[in-house]
Design brief:
By secondary structure, this protein is mainly alpha-helical. Helix content is 61%, strand content 0%. Among the domains are: 31 residues, no CATH class; 61 residues, no CATH class.
Length: 179
């Protein structure tokens, strides 16, 4: 018996499975498809995870391409914040620049009121209006309005007498404040 036969018999006794694999001459152990393409990146990722530089994620596989990988890329924190910001700006732009229904101006709002109704309203609420506002709204100008004398029956002597009485009733401190 030669040496080869001895080895074969010993191998058969120890493990018939290994003997069968050797006789088939095939490769019993196979490497997954694309293993050597993503192996360097996986080793680097694990080394960085051990150093605490990145969070440990499940290993990337060669099949992680396509739509799922593209969507996962968009949901990283930085890109998700950018997407939310852009969405917020678009919503604000739509809200600000969307055509609003037209509000009637003062001319359109008052178009259905007659002249008598306007005069009646002004005469009923005359205390609400100042002279400047009335002159601005009037058709006539301020030059056409005659000067009115407020107290026509009071003369200069009456005014002087009134001022003398008011001054006598005032204290010195009040007079100093007026000056």
């Amino acid at each position: 018996m030669n040496e080869k036969d001895k080895i074969r018999k010993e191998l058969e006794g120890l493990s018939p499975l290994l003997l069968k694999m050797k006789e088939q001459g095939g490769r019993p152990f196979r490497v997954p498809e694309g293993y050597f393409e993503y192996l360097p990146g996986e080793v680097l990722r694990r080394a960085r995870a051990e150093e605490g530089l990145i969070k440990d994620h499940p290993p990337a596989t060669a099949d992680s391409t396509g739509l799922l990988a593209w969507l996962q890329g968009w949901f990283t924190p930085r890109r998700a914040m950018a997407l939310a910001t852009v969405s917020l700006l678009v919503a604000a732009g739509i809200f600000l620049f969307w055509p609003q229904p037209l509000q009637p101006g003062p001319e359109e709002a008052l178009a259905g009121i007659s002249g008598e109704e306007a005069k009646a309203y002004v005469s009923d609420n005359i205390g609400e209006f100042g002279l400047d506002l009335l002159l601005e709204a009037a058709v006539v100008s301020a030059d056409e309005v005659p000067e009115m004398e407020v107290l026509p029956d009071i003369g200069q002597e009456d005014i002087d007498q009134y001022l003398d009485e008011v001054i006598e009733e005032m204290s010195l401190d009040e007079l100093e404040e007026l000056l």
